[in-house]
Each structure stands twice: as C-alpha cells, then as structure tokens.
Design a protein that fits this description.
Elements: H1 20-27, E1 122-129, H2 148-151, E2 159-166, E3 173-180, H3 185-188, H4 199-208, E4 210-218, E5 225-228, E6 234-236, E7 241-245, E8 264-266, E9 271-276, E10 282-286, H5 302-310, E11 344-347, E12 357-359, E13 367-374, E14 379-386, E15 389-391, E16 393-401, H6 408-414, E17 421-430, E18 450-461, E19 466-468, H7 475-480, H8 482-487, E20 494-495, E21 497-502, E22 509-513, E23 540-546, E24 552-560, E25 570-571, E26 585-590, E27 596-600, E28 610-614, E29 624-629, E30 635-641, E31 646-651, E32 679-685
Parallel strand pairs: 7-12
Antiparallel strand pairs: 1-32, 2-3, 3-4, 4-5, 4-6, 7-8, 9-10, 10-11, 11-12, 13-14, 14-16, 15-20, 16-17, 17-18, 18-19, 18-24, 21-22, 22-23, 23-24, 24-25, 26-27, 27-28, 28-29, 30-31, 31-32
The structure holds MU-OXO-diiron and calcium ion (2 copies).
Length: 686
C-alpha cells in the first residue's frame, strides 16, 4: 500500500473538502444558502459578563480507570510512544510513559487511498453495505436494476450513526442499528434526470432513508461481524408510521389532511447521529429535513414566512422532487408537513413491530443527534446540537427518574421520560478580555479558551401540561419553532454543533464544532472565546464540566483542529509535533477506558477523513492519533469503540462534484470497476 504523504502546509481553500454534490443532497446546499440565524441575539462578547456561582458547578468526578480487561488494542505497558504523523520527535520524556490503556497503536498517516486504512497489526472487514439483505426474502443487490420493493428489504444508503447492542444470553451476538441519512441519486441510478426523477427512483429513495436494525454475529478468533436475518430484522424508512409525543403533539402546527389529529407521522428523514439510551432504545436526530419540502415560497404571512426561513426551507421545487409523487412534500398543499420533522426520534430495536416516537419536548431544529447522561438520582439528561452555522447547543433535563429493570413496564416508563422535563439552550461566557479574542486562534494571555456558561430554560413539559419559559411564545411555538424561541434569550451562536456526549468515566461533556467559514466574515458574527477563529475551516472540540441537571457549567476548548504546524491550532497543550492532523470533527465516542474518539467529515487539509483517538487525562492529555482513514470522498461516522473492535460507518465513498453512476469516484468496497457502496466497517487487532 502506498500512502501519499500529506503536505502539512497545504494551501487552505477556505472550505472543507466536502463536495458540492454532498452539500446538495445531504444538507440541501446549506453552505450556499443564506445563514438562517439572522437574529439580533447578541454573542457573548456583547453580553454583560456575570459571575456565575461556581459553587453550583459540578467539579467532575475523579477518573477511575478500569483495572483489567484487554482492549482491542492490547496495551503492552511498555514504553512505546507513537508520535503522530505531525512530525517526528525524539528524546521526549513522554517516551518513557506508556500510552494510555487502549491507545497502543501506530498512527495511520494522512492519505488519499481509495481504501480503509488501519494501523499496522490490525485488520478490517465490511459488515454490511448498501443493498445487502436485512429482511427475510431480500433479493441480491442489483445496481442496474434496483427496485423499491428490493430496497425496502435491504440495507439503506449513506449510513451515519451506528449502535452495537449485546444480545442478552447470546454470546458474541449483537443488534446493529444504523441511520441512513440521505440519498445521492446521481450516484445511485444510471441516467438519473435531476429535473424528472421517475416514481420508482423516488420510492427507492424513500426506502433507502431511515434506519436498519439487524442481528450480527461475532466470529471466533477475529473481530469480524456477520449479518444474520432474525426476528429483530427491520427497516424503518421515509414512510414508516411514527407517533408524535410531547407538547407539540396534536397542535395546530402539526395537523395535516392525512393526520387531522396531529399525532401520527409517516417517516423519518435525514437521520444523522444518535445515541443509545440506558434502557436499550435508540435515539436518532432528524437533521437537514428542510430540503425535502417544495414550495416554501408559497407560505404567506410574516410570522409563517419567518418560521419557514429560520429553518432554511426555500424555493419552489425540492432537490429530489418527491412532491411530484406525494403531496405531503409540497408546502403549497400541506404547509404543516415540515413541522412534523426535525425531532429526536426513539426506536425500540428489540421489537420489530413497535411504533417509534418523535419526542417534541426536545425541540425542533436540525438535530445532529442526542446522547444520554443519567445523574446519581436517576435524572435523565439529553445533550443535543443544532448543526447549522451560528446555531445552538441544547440539553433536556427530565423531571421523571429512570426506572431500573428490563421489564415491559420499565421500558414503557423510560420511553416516556423524554416527554417530561425542561429544555434548555446554552450561553457561553469567556473569561479573557474580548480584545484578546481576535479571530486568529492565538491563545489569550491566560493560556486557554475557556470560561463559564449557563443553560437558559425554554420549555417545561409534563404529562398533562406544559409551560413556555420564553416571553411571547406559546408552548407549542417553543416546541415546533424552537430556533426562534432560542433566538430571543441570548443563546450563543456556535460553529455548527454536531455530536455532544458525556464521557461515562468522568461525566465531562464533549461537543464537536465542525467548522464555520462564515465566522468573522462580511457582516457575520465575529470570533468569541468559545468560537475563537474567523473563517473556521477546521473546527474545534469543546469540553464542558456540567452540573448535568442544573443550569451552570464551566468550559474550555480541548482541541482547536487543523494542521498541527499552523499557529492557530491547539491540542490540549500537548506537543503539536507529536499529533495527527485533524479537521472537521463530527462524531464523538468513548472507549471503555474513557479515551475520546472523534470521526471527521470534510477534512480541509487535503487528506481523507478518519477516526482519531484523543487522550483526556494525564501527561499525554491532548495527544491525538489517527486510528483509521476512510476511502476517497467518504466521511467517517458512527464510531463504536469496544474492548474487541472498532466499528465505523463509511458514508458516501467517492463523492465529488462530478461523481455520477457513469463516472464513479470510488470503487470501494468491492474494487475493480464496481460502484462504490456506503458500508459499515469493523476493525480489530490481528
Ligand atoms: Fe449530518 Fe451534522 O452531520
Ligand atoms: Ca480564557
Ligand atoms: Ca454528523
């Protein structure tokens, strides 16, 4: 294998490497659209600085390392420092400190291979790819003769989030649950006509969205996972029935001619990241749902127009022209249908006949995903990001406590927890003089981008009542038009909040801010201490010490991503000559030892995307190493890191501006002249 060295001094072009085709089909070309958040909402250098009562801020639990256990990367316990590809280093005192448990691997260099590249001594394999069987009777995938009937039984397109749940009583068997974020029709069909897709193509796309649930079996002696058709096998698509729960259910904003009660929605769309609940269900975020709806410009009235604009619903025809075959995608006919998307959905993967729900108490925005932290008293906290430039970070704190146990009544109780509680949005306050935050990325004189913050309440919901906590907004308006409510309370405009998750070992919360090339440009908001770079091409990682059920927090930037040789990057204070370059962080995850893992989307440094580990504790804090890279044009997502294996989703391999089925940009995973297929990959030591 020839690895092409990355120039660490590559000229930046001002954007991530993500192709325009990806932008159109995943995000509805969000980057080319006006910024939806035009609110006067002040960013924090204009907010009067206040002293938060630090006594209310949780100090974070002490790290307790696992005492035993063989991680997939067996720690040798010997001195084996592995400098990243950021540059050679020798003679460091760190050479005598063993790598943290679980991170004893040799970094993969940045590269542009059309392959999944894993460290020396590791192997990888495809678990399942677009078109592989999920349901009984699924036909063999036939790219040139694909049908909707086949797709409804097969693995969907563009896998993003993934979860691996051990099946009780079945050693080495797991449920694999995967999001299918979006479809890229020019790559899926020969001769695709963007102006006039056929009904069959549209129906294939509906069936290729949603989620897949399937059983996988681990192979003895390796990390391989083999799909097994079972009673758990399920496809959830753009037409599966969902129940709307929480304060927006039944409101005038969500009623349609097909659902006059406003309680039953067909389908879930643009499912990006997600989380596993402690009660064994899956949370999944409906992200760029706006792009599927046509004729937003027919909505009249100032308030209604403002709502449509704030959610980025534009134009006449939609990109995929679904409105040609189902009027619910046409706002001229069904103006409320988009109000039924943009939620966190919850799915019980253990019962293939269960009806999934959309939790409106968690607000409606471009939900990246949701992850759960449970406090000592059983309060459930959901952390969430709204992935748009200059949008916000949210959390939901339950008023009910988790019920332990795995019986039906506990499941029923726990699946309603996210309907009762308080929704908050975050305000970040820096502790350095604003003059020292000049947009260059240079650290302020106190040596850190850091400060305090508060969670501002928006909505309090209970089983039979709810209360708006935002002046001028009804309960239903906060639940359905959450962005507009948050605009009025002084939330901090962030650089595209993606995944947010609490470290189960320490309770500290980590958020990926993927990038924002508009920061500090034209008339857009300038840098602030939590978003400290203008033209932020490479993103950053926020570390929050949160009083999970409370309203105060402290924060600091763990990583300011990019080329380690560049002055505007920061790696937790670690020696930058010994780290891997990292750009556009998207998903975060933790291994059993509490190390942070980050997958990337849109590497702006000229190399393929990948999966990286970051040390959080001790003298190696900030050490960032690349564990794997994905094929050309792909993004890495859905990372799962267990003792035995690493699982990632490889999304949109080969995608580039001129990529079509006639001219594929990749032949991964099947090689030769095969069409590229999004797929789930497992890697293991051996
Ligand atoms: Fe679908 Fe925010 O990435
Ligand atoms: Ca500071
Ligand atoms: Ca994402």
């Amino acid at each position: 294998m020839i690895l092409q060295p990355l120039s660490l001094f590559v000229a930046h072009d001002g954007t991530s490497s993500r192709s325009h085709l990806t932008c159109r089909y995943r995000c509805g070309d969000a980057c080319a659209q006006p910024i939806p958040n035009t609110s006067e909402n002040p960013y924090f250098r204009d907010v009067a600085r206040r002293t938060l009562d630090r006594r209310t801020v949780l100090r974070g639990g002490a790290l307790t390392m696992l005492s035993a256990g063989a991680l997939f990367a067996h720690s040798t316990g010997t001195a084996a420092a592995q400098p990243g590809s950021g540059g050679a280093a020798g003679g460091s005192s760190l050479d005598h400190i063993p790598p943290p448990r679980g991170l004893d691997y040799e970094a993969v260099p940045p590269n542009t291979e059309d392959a999944v590249v894993v460290p020396r001594g590791y192997s990888s394999d495809v678990v399942i790819r677009w078109g592989d069987p999920v349901l009984p009777g699924a036909p063999e995938f036939d790219f040139a003769n694909h049908t909707a009937a086949a797709q409804e039984k097969q693995f969907g397109y563009n896998n993003d989030f993934a979860a691996l749940l051990p099946i009780p009583g079945a050693a080495s068997e797991y449920l694999l649950v995967v999001n299918h974020e979006y479809t890229t029709e020019p790559a899926m069909f020969y001769g695709y006509d963007e102006a006039a897709p056929t009904e069959e193509q549209v129906r294939i796309a509906w069936a290729a969205h949603g989620l897949s649930v399937l059983k996988v079996r681990g192979e003895a002696g390796s990390g391989k996972l083999t799909p097994v058709i079972s009673e758990f096998s399920r496809r959830i698509t753009a037409t599966t029935e969902f129940t709307l729960t929480g304060p927006a259910a039944g409101s005038d904003f969500v009623r349609t001619s097909a659902d006059p009660a406003g309680t039953t929605v067909r389908g879930t769309l643009n499912n990006c990241a997600g989380g596993v609940t402690p009660w064994g269900t899956i949370l999944s975020g409906e992200e760029n749902f706006n792009q599927y709806f046509a004729n937003g410009d027919t909505i009249s009235g100032d308030a209604a127009r403002a709502r449509v604009k704030r959610y980025g619903i534009t134009g006449a025809a939609s990109e995929r022209r679904w409105e040609n075959y189902d009027p619910r995608f046409d706002q001229a006919k069904e103006p409320n249908e988009p109000n039924r998307f943009g939620y966190i959905v919850e799915i019980n993967p253990w019962d293939a006949t269960s009806t999934p729900v959309k939790h409106t108490a968690l607000g409606r925005f471009k939900h990246e995903g949701a992850t759960i932290h449970v406090t000592a008293d059983g309060t459930v906290v959901a952390y969430m990001g709204d992935d748009e430039r200059f949008d916000y970070i949210y959390k939901f704190v339950s008023s009910r406590k988790i019920m332990r146990g795995d019986g039906a009544s506990a499941l029923r109780h726990n699946m309603a927890i996210l309907d009762e509680g308080t929704l908050y949005v975050a305000r970040f306050l820096g502790n350095s003089p604003s003059a020292e935050i000049d947009g260059s990325g240079e650290l302020p004189s106190d040596g850190a981008f850091d400060g305090t913050g508060e969670w501002i309440p928006l909505l309090r919901a209970s089983a039979d009542s709810a209360e708006s906590l935002v002046d001028g907004f009804s309960v239903q308006e906060v639940a359905v038009f959450t962005r507009l409510a948050a605009d009025t309370v002084g939330a901090t405009k962030m650089d595209r909040p993606e995944d947010i998750e609490a470290n189960p070992r320490t309770g500290k919360v980590y958020a990926a801010l993927t990038n924002n090339t508009r920061r500090g440009t034209d008339n857009y908001p300038s840098a602030d201490e939590a978003n400290p770079r203008h033209n932020n091409k490479n993103g950053h990682i926020l570390e929050i010490t949160d009083d999970h059920a409370g309203t105060a927090f402290r924060w600091n930037l763990l990583l300011v991503c990019g080329d380690p040789a560049a002055a505007d990057t920061y790696f937790g204070g670690f020696d930058k000559s010994r780290v891997s370059p990292i750009s556009c962080p998207d998903n975060v995850a933790f291994d059993p030892y509490g190390n942070l893992w980050i997958s990337t989307d849109g590497n702006a440094l000229g190399a393929n995307d990948g999966l990286f580990s970051v040390v959080l504790q001790g003298p190696r804090r900030g050490e960032t190493k690349q564990f794997l890279s994905v094929p050309v044009g792909a993004e890495t997502c859905g990372p799962i890191v267990t003792e035995d294996r690493v699982v990632v989703c490889v999304q949109h391999p080969g995608e580039s501006d001129d990529y079509t089925a006639e001219s594929p940009g990749s032949h991964w995973p099947d090689g030769g002249d095969a069409q590229p297929r999004p797929a789930v990959v497992v890697a293991w030591k051996g």
